[in-house]
Structure formats: structure tokens, C-alpha cells
Amino acid sequence: MTIIFYDIPSTFPNNVWSANTWKTRYCLNYKRIPYKTEWVEYPDIEPLCKRVGIAPTSKKEDGSGRDHYTLPAIYDPSTGAYVSDSFAIAQYLDKTYPDTPRIFPGGTDGLQAAFEPAFRSNLGELWRFAILAECVGLNPVSEEYFRRTRKEIGGKTIEEVVPKGEEAVKVWKGVEEGLGRVDAWYQKNDGKGRYLLGETLSWGDFVVAGYLICSKIIWGEESREWKDIGSWHGGRWKALIESLKKYETVN
Amino acid sequence: MTIIFYDIPSTFPNNVWSANTWKTRYCLNYKRIPYKTEWVEYPDIEPLCKRVGIAPTSKKEDGSGRDHYTLPAIYDPSTGAYVSDSFAIAQYLDKTYPDTPRIFPGGTDGLQAAFEPAFRSNLGELWRFAILAECVGLNPVSEEYFRRTRKEIGGKTIEEVVPKGEEAVKVWKGVEEGLGRVDAWYQKNDGKGRYLLGETLSWGDFVVAGYLICSKIIWGEESREWKDIGSWHGGRWKALIESLKKYETVN
């Protein structure tokens, strides 16, 4: 049976862009589990989740205390399960399809759970650059929603959030330094391979690759931003993304 | 042959207290590697390291740009190696003594490297409470050094750093919430055991236990602080420390 994978569309090639949903796409392709993407515009996410019973993943950041519904989410017709949150989806897939390559090899689930917050806290303020490029690449109905809700949270327009001039130089340097600390973690893998666990792919790599491929897509391969990132830390980030090319399929 | 383990003494039982050196003690005991502790007071750490050739682990935080020498460090007479930095020591021990229990099972070195910064960033400002209890438990020569150098870095006396009144309540709540996020990582281990990798101990657990046992020692088992920590998150932290009791030996 074919899993339904809920993702947010855009005007980028093949619709794909979101770092968070890329993690799930990598997992599904890595495990070779048949799936079909169902595209859901931002304003339709909450109604969809409430209608079919997909659990919220957090509380809204607007201080309202209301539930926040996010993608990725999946529906697995073979079990009837709806699952949201990319980590929970990955654990569900490992459990439900134990004969496919494991996203958490060697029972590393707990250790891997610490990785994404650690990685994100080292990305610095990359999001302040990425947010505009993401936003203008959405379809109009999602762009309007994205702009309005981000303004409600932070009080600033997307354009105001993006660092400019000297601040931009400093913030971008912070991104490079942060990824440098992540590079140091990879270097600790004892020279055994390009992945966090050496030769073996796992959740942490999909997290890193999800954010990086999102950057590559929203700015474009020929952009100054992606060329910068690709040149940092001995080309580690470019090579990581290229090594995962076979898991980029959009079904 | 017997490894020399350099640690910082104190007036606490058996001299031991430091969270950072506890990580190494746990590793040595877990691997059942013969070792003998050599006690080094704070002002003697840098001269010792320079004399025997133990590498600095960072730059001093006083803005001088000078090398910072820290313990733990070890000397292994069977190879002639001096190694500093608790993570590097653990990797050295796994490599040099491959027939002992692995601190990084399943090639998890890279993933484990991300764990300590992730854990520490979730401890909140625990250090602001701990610093006074640690300091007054040192021997006079180290206490004087500790007070002087911490004042040089932050401009405040140790007593001024400790939160008081309403701030103390808020900061302590932050410690509980931070450990709550760490508890959530442990809960992701798929119900397979009390450790990050399920039934198998590894580096991440020694990091957590090192900080926790330090708290237990400096405040004492009957203190309000340790009783609080021990009661949080279903008693996870107390149980973790108790499960490692067999690796507490001080040689």
C-alpha cells in the first residue's frame, strides 16, 4: 500500500522546498517505501489535520496557547495511522517497516533526538536570510498566509527580518562559524566516513541535509549563498547533499 | 600498566567533585582500565601541562587569547601519550583498548559529539547555583585561584553570581524545564532501557551523570537541591546515578 505524504507546495522545481518535510522525504526514499505526495497549502494545513485527526506538534508562537499543526505528516493506509512531526514519522517508519534500512540504527533514537536541537542552535540566524527567499517562492495563497502569520508572531515584515549591510556580513559569518561547530562533530566520527555514524546514514544526516538542500533550492545552485555554503568546511555540505542525490525523488 | 588520571582535589569525600573529570572516571571504571588518580590543585594545572606536554583544550575566557589548560587529562605509560579533553580521552581509550566496553558503541562518535553541547545548553543556569557550593568545597589554594580567575572573567564575585530571591525561583525552574527537554530525549529511546542507547551505556550518559553526580556531591544527598533534582521527571536522574554506582570507584 502507498503512504500519503503531506507536504507544502511552492513554485520551486517539483514543488519541494521545506527543510522539515525534506527530512521525511529522505526517510521515505531511503527506506524505499511507496508513497505519494499530497500538496497542502499553508492555510489548509490546520483544517486538514483537524478533519482527519492529525495531532498538533506544538503550541502556536503567537502567545494564544492554541495548538499548532505542521507538516510533514503521513497517512499509512496499511495501519490506518496518521503521524505528524518528522522525528515521530521516522520512528513510526522504523517500527512499522523493520525490514527496511533503519533511520535510527543501533537503537540510537534517544541520542538522535538531541541532535536536531543541537544542530539548529548552531545554524545561527540562517533563517533570517532564508525566510524571504522561501516566502517569495510559495504559491500566492501560502505566501499571504506566511507573511501574515510571521508578522503576528514577531511584529516585523519578512523584509524587515532579513539582515542588511554590516549586520548581514556579521550574521552570515555566524552561520559559517555555527556550521563549523557541526563540521567538528562530523570530524569526530573517527574518519570512518562522511556521515555522523561513519559509513551509515541516519536521522542526524537527514536533519542536516534537509536544512542544506532547502538552502540550495530557495537560493539556487548558482547563488552566492549556496556557493558560500558549498565552499565551507572542505566542501562537506555540498558533498553531503550530492551523496544523498539518490534519495531526492519526489513521488 | 597503570594510567595516570589527573583530577582536581577538594574537601568533598574522596576528593572528587568535578563534572568534567567525572566523565573520565566513569569511562575508566566502565572499561576496567587500571588507573591511579594524581591530584592537581587549580594553580598547578597549567604548569603541569606545560611541563609534561599536555595540550591546552581551549583559549582562556578572559579575552587574553592565551591557551587554557584544563583537567581531566591522562598519561598512558603503555603508549607514552598524554591526552586532555574528556571527549578526546574517551576516544583514545576506545581506540587503544578495543577489547574493553566501548564508550562510543556502533561508531556513534560523531553523533555523541553533538550531545554534550546540546545537554549543556539545556542545563540552563544550573552553574550559577553550583559555582558557590563547588568553590567553598575546594582546598584553600584552589578556592583562592577559582575565586580570582572567575572574577577576572565575569567581573563578579562568586557570591554575586548566585541567583537570589525571586530570580532564584525562576532560574531553578529553568533548570527543571531544561532537564525536562533532556528527559524527552531519553524517552525517545523507544522504551528500550534507561540509557540514551537503550540498554547500552555510552558517552552521552556519562556526560549527564557527570553533571548530576557533581550536583549531588557539592550540595549533598540530603540537600533541597538534590532532593528536587532527584524527584524530577519520574526520578530519572536519581535512578541514572544509582545505576552507575559500580563505576564510582576512585582509584
From TrEMBL, chains A, B:
Q: Where is the GST N-terminal domain?
A: 8-101
Name the SUPFAM superfamilies for this protein. GST C-terminal domain-like (SSF47616), Thioredoxin-like (SSF52833)
Which PROSITE patterns is this protein grouped with?
GST_NTER
- State the source organism's domain of life: Eukaryota
Q: Which InterPro entries match?
A: Glutathione-S-Trfase_C_sf, Glutathione_S-Trfase_N, GST_UstS-like_C, Thioredoxin-like_sf
* Protein name, UniProt field: GST N-terminal domain-containing protein
Q: From which organism does this entry originate? A: Agrocybe chaxingu
